[in-house]
Amino acid sequence: MRITAEGLGWSAAGTPVVRGVDLDVAAGETVALIGPNGCGKSSLLRLLAGLRAPDAGAVRYDGLPVRDWSARRIARRVAFVEQDCGLDTDPRVADVVGLGRTPFRDRWRGPSDTDRAIVDAALDRVGLDALAERSWKSLSGGERQRAHIARALAQQPYALLMDEPTNHLDVKHRLELMELLSRTDQTVLLALHDLSLAARYCDRLLLMRAGRLVASGSPAEVLTPAHLAETFEVDAELSTDRPGHPTLVYHGPLRAPTPRTAPASRTAPAPRPTSTTRTSPRQGTP
C-alpha cells in the first residue's frame, strides 16, 4: 500500500509540531524516519496512522484520502505499534496478540479457528509461541514489545507504522525484527534512533528536524557528515563493517568552542595588617 501526505501539519497547544510535511512511501518499501528527540517523529506517525487528525494537509492510502475513514476501516489496512503501550489488566499473551483480529470480527463474535491460526503464526514470527499462555505481567519489557509487534502482524495489514519498535529489545531480537521487516512485502515506515540499523535494513531514510522533513533518499544520501552534524550535533560518517554492511562511525559530539577571555590583570598583594593590640608589662620586671 502506498502512503502519501501533502502539506501535513499539526500543532499542540498552539505550538507547531509537524510543519508542512510532504512524503511518499511506495508499496512494499521499508523506510526509516530518523531525527533527534522532540523533532515530531511520533506525532507524524500518528497522523499517518489516522490516530490524530491533522490541522492542515491530507493523508492518502493508495491515493484515497483517509480523513473521513472510520477507525475500523483504517485498522484493516494499517497497524500501528507505539513506543510503550501498557495494560491495566493481566490477560494471556495470546489474548493481547488476538486484539489484532478485532477489526475483522463482529462485535459479539469470539475468535474463529482462522483467527487463532493467524495469532499462532504471529507469535511464532516474533519467537513468542512458547509464551502464548503466559500472563502479560509476567513478561519482560522486551517480551511485551515483541507481543505488541505480533499483535500488529496479526492484523495482516497492508502497512506497518512503528514508533521505535526496537525499544527494550536486546541485540539479537533487534536484528531479527529488522530482518523480518526488511523481508516483508508490506509497506513499513518506522521511527528509529539506531542509525546503523536504519542504514543497514531500510530502503530509504526520511530525516526530520524541528517538525519538517529536511532530507529523503538512500542511507548514503541522507547520512552525510553535514546532515549528521546539523541535525544530531555529532561528528560522524557512514562507513561499512567487516562483512560490508553500512554502519555509522561516531567520532564524538560537536561542542561549541569555548570563548576566549582576556587574562585577569595582576595586582599587588594587599599589605598585611599590623597588630595594634597592647600587651601588659611582664610581671616582676624592675
If you had to describe this structure to a student in words, what would you say it looks like?
This protein is of the alpha/beta class and 286 residues long. It is built from 9 helices and 12 strands. The strands form 3 sheets. It has a 6-stranded mixed β-sheet with strand order 6-7-8-3-9-10, with helices on both faces. A 4-stranded antiparallel β-sheet has the order 2-1-4-5, covered by helices on one side. It has a two-stranded antiparallel ribbon with strand order 11-12. It is globular and about 70 Å long. It starts with a strand and ends in a 33-residue tail after the last strand.
- Radius of gyration, CA atoms, in whole angstroms: 29 Å
> Helicity level, as a percent range?
25-40%
Supply the helix-strand structural class. alpha/beta
Give the CA-based shape.
Answer: globular
The end-to-end span amounts to: 117 Å
Order of helices and strands: EEEHEEHEHHHEHEHEEHHEE
Mean of pLDDT: 89
Largest beta sheet: what is the strand line-up? 6-7-8-3-9-10
Q: What is the percentage of strand-forming residues?
A: 25-35%
Please report the number of helical segments: 9
Uncertain parts: 275-286
Largest sheet: 6 strands, mixed
Question: How many E strands?
Answer: 12
